[in-house]
Amino acid sequence: MTILSILRETGTHERRAAASVDTVKKFCALGLKVQIETGAGVRAGISDEEFKQAGAEIKRTAAECLEGSLILLSVDAPPAAVIETLPAGMMLVGMFAPHHNRERLRRMAEKHHVVFAMELMPRISRAQSMDVLSSQANLAGYRAVIEAFAAHGKAAPMMMTAAGTVAPANALVLGAGVAGLQAIATARRLGAVVSAFDVRPAVKEQVESLGAKFVEVPSEETRHAETAAGYAREMSEEYRRKQARLIHDTLKKMDIVITTALIPGKPAPVLITGAMVQDMKPGSVIVDLAAGSGGNCPLSQPDEVVVVHGVIIIGHTNLPSRVAADATSLYARNLYNFVATFFNRESLLAVNFEDELVKGTLLTHKGQLVHPQFK
User: Fold this and answer.
1) Is 125 within the bounds of a domain?
2) What is the CATH number of the domain that holds 309?
3) Taking residues 363-367, what's their average pLDDT?
4) How far are the Cα atoms of 125, 313, 327 from residue 243, in angstroms, in the given order?
5) Is there a catalytic annotation at residue 128?
């Protein structure tokens, strides 16, 4: 019987778990034995007893949990100390941030671990139920708006009272990917007047369908602003100058700003400069979803809330973890949907290394870094 393990996440800001009660039941039904380190689900609102009732065995320590295990599911890359304790040849599935964890990947390759990075999942229709970036970014966009209005001293919707009228808040979302679109939808549901900017004109219809105004830089260059994977490309210097002027003028009217622009493997593009912040309204709020990658605003500080020129800048790097129960449920389901493809109808491990989902996510195999982006 194949043994699958889940350890307690050790990251300071990590509250998610790599399994839910639902996925434990599904793995057990698949014929696997599930071992979970005690306390692994506590910060996501799942008790050891709930995991036990779902069919898992609860282990007191990480070492006991890993005993006899062939597969380890995780949220983040295991710490270096834990990697040294993992049995050689173990299969690891999680979000490994390969651009930032080269040394850990090298060590896992040396130990002949078979490592799959879920954030590299190909953007194809067959993989939609395994797309961790989308499931987690969706919650990040939602939580960003909640954090912004919690920090701001203004109500979101228009309110008409006997004492007078409260004007609605103005919100701007920079980047209309999964996180940005959810931020737009959430801010609109709260009653804010929302504008959104993106270099990709293809998202204009999506933005406007959510009730937001699309802010754009007229340019022929935007025709080629999207990669085959759906990400925004880096734009020319001339385009960036026009973009900066437009954003600068727009920011002056805003109460809430959510920035979501990321380029995989590269520092986040700077969208809001210090000079722009200085011209914003005192008390306005920026939530920088790219704070962990250098920031769309260079004044943001990872995992800190700072006030600069009277503007509140929030740099939480793990917003999905601040909605840990739902983030765990979705992430665990993404993991199950992928790992279930490793097994045949007799519940025997039979990974097809020619499958495009496997090839797209496989980082290390047979003692080597094998992914074309990192080998």
Assistant:
1) no
2) 3.40.50.720
3) 95
4) 33, 21, 33
5) yes
pLDDT band at residue 222 using 50, 70 and 90 as cut-offs: low
Active-site option among 123, 189, 233, 240: 123
51/34 Cα distance (integer angstroms) = 10
Asked if 314 and 329 sit in the same domain, the reply is: no
Is 76 annotated in the active site? no
Domain count across the chain: 2
Q: What domain range is 192 assigned to?
A: 138-318
Whether the pLDDT of residue 201 is over 90: the answer is no
Q: Which residue has the higher pLDDT, 264 or 336?
A: 336
Same domain, 332 and 288: no
Tell me how far apart the alpha carbons of residues 94 and 370 are, in angstroms, rounded to a whole number: 17
pLDDT in tens, 22-41: 999 999 999 999 999 999 99
Is 371 within a domain? no
Q: Are residues 329 and 309 in the same domain?
A: no
Higher pLDDT, 172 or 240: 172
Residues 298, 341, single domain; the answer is no
What is the C-alpha separation between 92 and 99, in angstroms, rounded?
A: 17
Pick the range with the lowest mean pLDDT from 103-112, 210-219, 279-288: 210-219
Mark whether 80 and 151 lie in a shared domain.
no
Distance CA 138, CA 140 (A): 5
Q: Which of 47, 128, 209, 236 is catalytic?
A: 128
Is 157 found in the same domain as 79?
Answer: no
Active site residue 300: no
Task: Using DSSP bridges, classify how beta strands 193-197 and 285-288 pair: parallel, antiparallel or unpaired.
Answer: unpaired
pTM: 0.92
Lowest mean pLDDT among 147-161, 212-226, 247-261, 304-318: 212-226
Catalytically annotated residue among 8, 16, 131, 329: 131
Residue 195: inside a domain: yes
> Same domain for 194 and 294?
yes
Whether 341 is in a domain gets the answer: yes
| Whether the Cβ atoms of residue 105 and residue 94 lie closer than 8 Å to each other | no
Provide the pLDDT confidence category of residue 224 given band limits of 50, 70 and 90.
low
Catalytic residue among 43, 48, 107, 134: 134
Report the alpha-carbon distance of residue 77 to residue 363 in Å, rounded. 12
